[in-house]
Every structure is written in structure tokens, then in C-alpha cells.
Write a structure and sequence with these properties.
The complex is a heterodimer of chains A (177) and B (78). Chain A contains no helices and eleven strands. In chain A, the strands form two sheets. An eight-stranded antiparallel sheet of chain A has the order 1-11-3-7-8-9-5-6, with no helix packed on it. In chain A, strands 2-10-4 form a three-stranded antiparallel sheet, with no helix packed on it. Chain A has one domain (9-166): Jelly Rolls (Sandwich). Chain A is mainly β. Chain A has strands at 9-17, 23-29, 37-44, 54-57, 64-71, 76-81, 99-106, 114-121, 131-138, 147-155, 160-167. By secondary structure, chain B is α+β, with helices and mostly antiparallel strands. Chain B has one domain (6-74). In chain B, strands 1-2 form a two-stranded antiparallel ribbon. In chain B, a hairpin with a 4-residue loop joins strand 1 and strand 2 (16-21). The longest helix of chain B is centred in the middle third of the chain and has 41 residues, at 24-64. Classes of the chains: A mainly beta (177), B alpha+beta (78). Strand 2 of chain A pairs parallel with strand 1 of chain B.
Chain lengths: 177, 78
Amino acid sequence: MGVEYSIMKKTLIERIDVDSSGESNVVFSSISQEYDGLLLICSVRNDSTNLTFDIHPNGSSADRTRTTIQGSGAAATAATGTDITPLQDSSAYTANTFASTSVFIPNYTGSQTKGFSIESVTENDATTSYQRLQAGLWSNANAITSLELSTASLFAEHSSFTLYGVSAGSDGSTSVA
Amino acid sequence: MPETPTKLVVDVSTGEKTRVELTAEEIAQREADAAAYAQELADAEAAAEALATLKASARAKLVAGEALTEEEAATIVI
């Protein structure tokens, strides 16, 4: 008898590529509620010296908290805040480099607090370049139907944001009493 | 007069793209986000600088055979 494995399925929902005009904010709206989670993959640079961008679930700036640990190449730090902030490359970083960020949002359709699991690294040909792990929370009962990403100035050309829907496997569910 | 920043809204159910001007609240939020980032960066740099100073002091006292403070000892003994 063979062993059956549950296979997670990842479905491309939308990809946004920033053109030469740059973008202040980008929004994925009308997100389908058919998935078990969302995965956002970002390749990001901006035209200011700011090293983070912000995620606003349903366009909201309220109800957000997060805990961050971060290394810079010289020091390790930890911080908390009332926002959700992955890394982006700054305009001062090596030309044509982009930060890589992944954001996983499980159970985004539920009424419970939503978690944002963020792994983010900047790319820079210098001693200082950041690696960040962040646990974000959006303490709101509404399902997530849109994701807005904002930056201090403009997302730079060739930045990209790709949103996937993640489905659990058909036989992979486990209930704990 | 500077242009009002816009946001690119992509309706992922249809692929339709629209550009919408940011509201005054959204612009204020962007400024608040940038200020929060600057504060966090300043705090992190101050903490790193303070740690470096403590480590340098601990190292100098060890070489000189002097007693370390609790804070200095904590930088070299886990």
C-alpha cells in the first residue's frame, strides 16, 4: 500500500511590476476568499533612504503590531512597533539591487487575529545590509480582502510584488481536541 | 504645487488597474510611517553604539586588570 502525501498548492493571483514612473502605493484589491493562506513575494527598492515599506491589510493602519529581530552586518537588534514593515533596498544601496521579502498570511479569511510571517533581506555591496524576521499581527475580525503596500516616497522601477493563494492539501488536515 | 501622490489599485478578480489619489489621511499615514522608521533606526543605532562603548570599556578594563561593571561583564559573558 502506498503512502499518500498532502501537497500544498500555490496559485498565482496577481503580479504588480513597477514601471519607470515609480509607485507611491500599490494595492491588491478584491482578493478571493477561496484559499487557506496568502503568500506575497516582493523584490523591492525605493527612491528614498528608508529601508522599510508598510503593509496595510484592507488599507487599514489600525490594529497592527509586530515584533522584529534584525541583523545589520554589524549589530543585532530587536524592536516592537505598531506597523508591519518588511525591508526594501534604499536609494543609497548598490545600484540595481533589490531587497527580497516573503510574507505569509495564514487563515486570512477568518475572524481571528491575522498573523504575518515575514522574512526579509536587503542586498547591498557593503558591510551594512539587513536581514529581518518579523512577526506581524492584524488584530481585526474582518477577513483580508485587500493588501496595500506603501513606501515613504516611490517604489523604484523593476520592483515587483507577486501575490499567491496557498491551499492546504486535500488530506492534510489534523484536528487537535 | 506638488502633485498629489497616487496609488495603483489592481482588482485581482478582473485585472483592472486604476490610479487613485491618496487622501489626506493616507498621506499623513505615510509621513507617520516614515517618522516611525526614522525613530526605530535612531534607537537601533543608539543601542548599537552604546553596546560598542560598553564592549570597548570592558576590553580596556580586562587588559588593565580592573574590575568590570555588571553591564560591561554582560557584554562578554553570556
